[in-house]
Amino acid sequence: MIIFVSDCSRECHQRNVLRKAPNGGIARIGGMISGKKIFALIPAYNEEKTIAKILVKTERIADAVVVVDDGSTDETAQIAERLNATVLRHEKNLGKGAALRTGVDYLKKEKSFDILVTLDADDQHDPSEIQSIVAPIIEGSADVVVGVRPMDSRVMPRQRIVGNKLFDRMTNSPVRDTQSGFRAYTLDALGKISFSESGMAVESQTLMDAVRAGLRIKEVPISTTYQGIVPKRSAANHFAEVLEYIITRTVADHPLQYLGLPGIISILIGVAAGLRVVDIFVKNQQIAAGTALIAVTLIIIGAVMIATSMIIKLLTIQATR
């Protein structure tokens, strides 16, 4: 079944259905693991060379598979449909985060699964490891599980290793691979995570949401491969997008710490500089114009930073009510 989706409204509109599941909804494929229904969600963009391999392996384990074709110009959607996956299709490329959001929004309406597994369609992840990914949830020790890839230059490009380690530190994450897209979520956890980022920063955003919501997060070691994988965008653009989000989110989550406190310090330094100007004038009857300008600038910057931090804090409080 292929369903065309308008992500702007986040509603699924059935425009052209090629095949319906027997019950008119999502086609059930595999069997339950330890009594838990497991659905798999796979965002895909021009992955006609690998999507069949990923689906065949995934369908051996998952009860149902949903592929979100993010505006592919190749045969990705058609191949996925022929292999019994439910396909949601964006008419244009909107980004990995948007594809995940489309899939999650669609599946939330089902509410007939216990665990949702997300994985990539480019053959980076091994679907046979789904059982390892969902194990902590089945055992009752986790709400979110992240597959942690080996940070080894023999299997992962060195620039990715450096970037991942930097992002791990910046997000203060309980797991060692914040950029891994091979994850498992309980249905309850999905209700507390927004998938609001449309691009590659979605991995950081969802993990930071999970931490903020107090969800239990566990990591599981997984294998990975980058052999034959052609990046859809440059590593520099990917890095810049994620870095911008983490910095913005960190400041937004803790405005008093990252804006208010520096603002207070700026004002104090400005006041100290102003007192120095007054002292020089009293003693020498001269105006230290340069120092005076620095003092005024620091006080203004500090005041703006404090005001901004208070506005952000008030907006955050308003949003959470």
Using brief descriptors, characterize the structure shown.
321 residues, 10 helices, 9-stranded mixed β-sheet
Topology:
Elements: E1 2-6, E2 11-12, E3 38-44, H1 51-59, E4 64-70, H2 76-82, E5 86-90, H3 96-110, E6 115-118, H4 130-138, E7 144-148, H5 158-171, E8 183-186, H6 187-190, H7 202-212, E9 217-221, H8 235-253, H9 255-284, H10 289-320
Parallel strand pairs: 1-5, 3-4, 3-6, 4-5, 7-9
Antiparallel strand pairs: 1-2, 6-8, 7-8
Helix pairs in contact: 5-8, 8-9, 9-10
Q: What would your notes on this structure say?
A:
Strand 1 and strand 2 (11-12) form a beta hairpin. The chain has helices spanning 51-59, 76-82, 96-110, 130-138, 158-171, 187-190, 202-212, 235-253, 255-284, 289-320, and strands spanning 2-6, 11-12, 38-44, 64-70, 86-90, 115-118, 144-148, 183-186, 217-221. It has a nine-stranded mixed β-sheet with strand order 2-1-5-4-3-6-8-7-9, with helices on both faces. It has two domains: 2-252, Spore Coat Polysaccharide Biosynthesis Protein SpsA, Chain A (Alpha-Beta Complex), CATH 3.90.550; 254-320. Helix 5 (158-171) packs parallel to helix 8 (235-253), helix 8 (235-253) packs across helix 9 (255-284) and helix 9 packs antiparallel against helix 10. The chain is α/β, with parallel strands linked by helices and 321 residues long.
